[in-house]
Amino acid sequence: MIRTFVAIKIPVYNELVDAVGVLKKQFSDEKINWVPIENMHITLLFIGSVSQQEVEQIIGQLRSIKHLVPFSFQLQGLDVFKKAGKPRVIFSKVDAGAKLEELAISVRHALTGFYNENAVNEFSPHLTLGRIKSIRDRDNFETLLFDFRNTYFQKVECSEFTLYESTLTPEGPIYTPIEIFSF
Question: Considering only CA atoms, which of 2, 15, 8 is closest in space to residue 114?
């Protein structure tokens, strides 16, 4: 079985690299597993484990999406996803307008039946920067989040999305492109 997802690969420019470097320094006292720059992406749909035959069918379905036009969006501001009241994921917010959501909806509609629709949350565009293991100084963490709440990171031009294979390893996930879909 092949663990798969559909995402937009984020081309990383110096402004995002520099910003992540500042964040790592500012949050150095906290236990955060930072996402490697080469793994940065915005997930459109997590599919899960599928067979090789299903991968071929998924590729066919994704090729059938025809009405897309290139668009751009901004990575701007920090926030966190919480679980049981504790921050677990630190991410950059995505200011994209309707085009990104239209793309996500198109991917979901094209792949109906290939993923567990009950396990898929409403599309919430974000760029995961790190997974939080623990926070030592909650007040400082909240202050830094507030300070970075509107920080501009980078503009992204989007004219393609990718079907990825995700291989989980003890060192972290490895994302391998299966097929790139340009529009």
Answer: 2
Contact by Cβ (8 Å): 56, 22: no
Least confident of 20-29, 30-39, 110-119, 147-156: 110-119
User: Using CA atoms, how far apart are residues 73 and 97, in angstroms rounded to an integer?
Assistant: 8
User: Which active-site residues does the annotation give?
Assistant: 41, 126
Q: What's the distance, CA 121 to chain centroid? A: 14
CA–CA separation, 110 vs 118, rounded Å?
Answer: 16
- pLDDT at residue 122 above 90? no
Check pLDDT > 80 for residue 179: yes
How is the chain split into domains, by residue range?
A: 2-182
Kindly report which listed range (8-12, 116-120, 153-157) carries the lowest average pLDDT score: 116-120
Helices (H), the chain: 14-26, 52-63, 98-110, 138-147
Single out the residue of 162, 163, 161 nearest to residue 55, CA to CA: 163
Q: Is-contact 179 162, C-beta < 8 A?
A: yes
* Class of domain 2-182 as given by CATH: alpha beta
